[in-house]
Amino acid sequence: MTWRKDSALQDVYIVDLVGGYYDAGDNVKFNFPMAFSTTMHACLEYLKHALDAIRWAREYFLKATSIHGFVFAQVGDPYAHHNCWERPEDMDTPRTAFAVSRDFPGSEVSVASSIVYSKYHLGYSTRLLQRAIKVFDFADKYRGSYNDSLGAWVCPFYCDFSGYQDELVWGAAWLFKATKRPNYVDYIDKNIHNLKNFAEFGWDSKDVGINVLVSKLLINSSSNSKPFILNNADKFVCSVLPESPSVLVSYSSGGLLFKPGGSNLQHATTISFLFLVYAGYLKQTNKEINCGGKVFASPKRLKQIERGQVDYILGSNPANMSYMVGYGAKYPERIHHCERRIILF
Question: Where's the Glycoside hydrolase family domain (predicted)?
Fold first, then answer.
C-alpha cells in the first residue's frame, strides 16, 4: 500500500522491538491478542500467501523473547495512546515497553506455534520450535498471571479473565503437534482438568480450541484425558447448534450467531473455524454428535453452520453489506475495530 509509510522504527529498548502488529488505531502492540491472531493465521497453512503475514509477527515474537528470563508483553502506553488517535506514521506518543520475568511472571504471553514453516523453511521452523520450547518451559516454571505483574498497563484493555492455565495447555498441544513428544501429552493429561470454559474460544480463553485441536491430535493415542476432551468438544458443538436443546448462543433474525459482549464477529469467525476443523475430525472417525433427543450434529451440518456464518459476514445478510472492509460492493467505510453499535439484522 503506497499510502502507508514506516512507523515506530524507534521501538528499541534493551532489544529491538520494531515490527509486529498494532492492536488498532491507538497504535499499541498488545502481545497477548497478537499471539492468538498469529496462531490462528498459522492454522491456515494451506494458504501460502499468508506466510509473510505470519512471519512478520513471528520475527517480532523472536525479538520479544530473545533475552533469557524475560518476555516482552506490550509496547506503548495504552492510556496515552488511547487518548490520541492518529495515523501510525504521525505517532508521537510514549513508546514504553513492558515485560514479564521470573520475578514478575506472565504465563499467558508465552506462545508456541512454529509447525507451519516446516513445509517451506525447515531451518526457520527449527529455530522457532527451539524458542517456543524455551518460552513454554519458562512460562510453566514461573507461573503467574500477567494481570498481577502488568495489570496497571494491560487492564482494562486486555486483562486475562480466564486464567493462564489454558495458555499453558494450548502451548503444550501445539508443541505436541510439532514434536510428537509424549511428555506434552502427559502435560495435557495432568493439566486439562483445570479448563472450565467448554464453550469459550478467543484471544483470552483457549479452552474450546484446545478441546478441538487435542481431540484431533489424540485420535490414536492412549491419553487418559481423551474422553474428557471429546465430551467437552461435543458439548461445545451442541451449545452452538441452533436446534440443540442445550444451545447457549443466540442468532439474529438474519442468521448471525450472537454472544454477549462487544466485537461479536470475533465469536462468529472463531466458532466457524472450529466447526470446520471438528467436522473434519467427525468425518475421519465416522461420528455424529447426539445433542439430545433426535438432534444429531453431522459433519455436513457443522459445515453448513460454518458456511452460513462466513456467507453472512461477506454480504449474504438482510443489509446486503459485507462486514469485511474492502470486500464486495458495500462495506463499512468509517470503522473502529471494536465498534459495538452496528445493528445486525
Answer: 2-337
Instruction: Name the more confident of 159 and 116.
Output: 159
* Distance linking the first and last C-alpha atoms of the chain: 33
pLDDT tens column, 124-145 = 778 888 888 888 888 888 888 8
Do 218 and 306 lie in one domain? The reply is: yes
Contact partners, residue 52, CB within 8 Å, separation at least 6? none
For residues 169 and 191, is the Cβ–Cβ distance under 8 A? yes
The answer to whether residues 62 and 72 touch, using CB atoms and an 8 Å cutoff, is no
Mean pLDDT within 263-273: 90
What distance in Å separates the CA atoms of residue 80 and residue 76, rounded to the nearest whole number?
8
Rounded CA separation 250/257 (Å)? 6
| CATH number of residue 281's parent domain | 1.50.10.10
Please provide residue 224's backbone torsions phi and psi, each rounded to the nearest 5 degrees. -80, -5
The count of C-alpha atoms lying within 13 angstroms of the C-alpha of 224, restricted to the half-sphere facing its C-beta, is 6
**At residue 147, what is the residue type?**
N
Q: For the segment 63-96, what is each residue's pLDDT rounded down to a tens digit?
A: 998 888 888 889 988 888 888 778 888 887 778 8
Q: What are phi and psi of 156, to 5 degrees?
A: -90, 15
At 241, phi and psi to the nearest 5?
A: -60, 120
Quickly state the pLDDT bin for 329 (edges 50, 70, 90). very high
Q: Are residues 123 and 175 in the same domain?
A: no
Q: Are strands 289-292 and 29-30 parallel, antiparallel or unpaired?
A: unpaired
The residue among 160, 187, 213 that closes a domain is 160
Looking at the structure, do residues 139 and 209 belong to the same domain, yes or no? Answer: no
